[in-house]
Amino acid sequence: MTTLLKEHVKLMSAFSACGEIIGRKKLQKMIYIAKKISFPFQEKFQFHFYGPYSEELTLRVEELCNMGFVHEEKEKKGGYYQYRYTVTKEGMDFLKLYEEEIPKLKECVLHMNEQSARFLELVSTVLYFDHLSEEEVKEKIFTLKKKQNYTEEEIEKAYQYIEKLKGIAKPH
Amino acid sequence: MRSEMDYSKKKLDEEKVFKDPVHRYIHVRDQMIWDLIGTKEFQRLRRVRQLGTTFLTFHGGEHSRFSHSLGVYEIVRRIVDDVFDGRPEWNKEERLLSLCAALLHDVGHGPFSHSFEKVFDLDHEQFTREIILGDTEIHQVLSRGGSDFPEKVAEVIAKTYHNKLVISLISSQIDADRMDYLQRDAYFTGVSYGHFDMERILRVMRPREDQVVFKYSGMHAVEDYIMSRYQMYWQIYFHPVTRSAEVVLTKILHRAKELYRNGYSFKQDPVHFYSLFQGNITLEDYLKLDESIILYYFQIWQEEEDPILKDLANRFVNRNLFKYIEFDPAKEYKKYSELESLFRKAGINPDYYLVLDSSSDLPYDFYRPGEEEERLPIHLLMRNGELRELSRESDIVDAISGKRRTDHKLYYPADFLKDDRSKPSIKRKIREILDI
After folding, report:
1. Is B350's CB within 8 Å of A2's CB?
2. Is the terminal CB of chain A with fewer CB neighbours within 10 Å at N or C?
3. B-contacting residues of A 94-113, CB under 8 Å?
4. B267 vs A55: which has the higher pLDDT
């Protein structure tokens, strides 16, 4: 049997493992990081104002919401809106039928979901420039993300975090 | 150093112009721009259609990425020379960089990019970078402007350049790229949507630290642009027949790849595809690909022994595409499983002939107001100097930007299913389920 909506199913697997994901930015960064550390997500990402962003992912999440498989809750927070995502009962039923186990994905996304969006934004940016040396990456972050005021210490932590995640993702 | 400076500032003895149906004339004064247009990597864009398979739906849509790239260059040239020049927020030193990035922003696109990228896991943006930084004629020309100049051009296109205002000229919610393709695609496909008052938009553009903003007085012209984006998406870019052609094209590539992997012996060696099939394509191989080469293979694959490759190639070349029905995967997934099994029983391989296509398979960015999103929304410059997000001021934009529209279609070969010479009862059952 062909997996219907194969790419959507992978996303639902990640969301269901987390229970709830708060924030679009966080969701984008989690999937990007997971993809970079070799989980099989197919969405294409480009660098945008605040780091890697995928229009394809945004559309897939919209499709999941429109199909009733994912619930999106919009709440006003200060001057902007924040979005919460959970897999619905219908989504879970669909997942039961079509989910294919992706080893270690759940552990990784759960771990990421405990981090702040700000930190995941930094981690994803470090990964985006992983072809550069650590010094060059720092320079990029200080120039491109001036307004976020990331410190050297935070960048160090981002590097350590990537290693930790790779450790979790590695098949034992 | 001196010669680099000289080359960057070098002007042609007299202005060259290209006649263009959208912008009337494309003006070139800079030696570097003229030299870049003459490179073989840029000339290759003449052989890659801007709209991929759309010509099978709108026969006029045969224009190339070459003409679009010139158009984007011309719009940026008008912005920096006629609108930004002399304004304190604009650094004149970024002029040539902006023009080069505009001209080269699509240089990494290959033939039928979308399907090729999907099937062979390619990334045209990576090829753009390699063309700009690798051993190419384009790199040679850019390097004459300074050893770090090619890297700067690549950074602007990859959106990682430090000056975001420069990036926003070719990549933002209202940029030269979109302004050109909307008008060009409308012109060549012959539709009446897609037109907007670009001259007015250019006149109300104002440079700011991180982005271009628009004077409030030009809001209606911006509204018109957003409407044209919206209509072009549904009428042209996401046209179901074009999607059908994409589906068939994608399946041809999948089939050829699978046959190659299984050791199938092609009547004529598909040498241009080897590195794609093997997943080790080099820049040199990539630059040899264009639509003429691909269509040549499709032509000869019509004579292949493999019935699936032969049939799919025939469908594409002779425009015998798949038909479709609207499909709601959430409510009808059981129906899909049943269809899949009936297709097999009827001797029609569902991996190639039963295809669910979703709107996310062809991502096209609708205007979204932003908020927590990654991309900056369009900002209007109010009379008191304040910036306001467009959809907060415009009821029209608010009405269409908040609206979600996603869509799924199920594609199938109607002619196979109507051919009752074999397995008539199974095919009848399939037709009943599909309601055709």
Report:
1. yes
2. C
3. 94, 97
4. B267
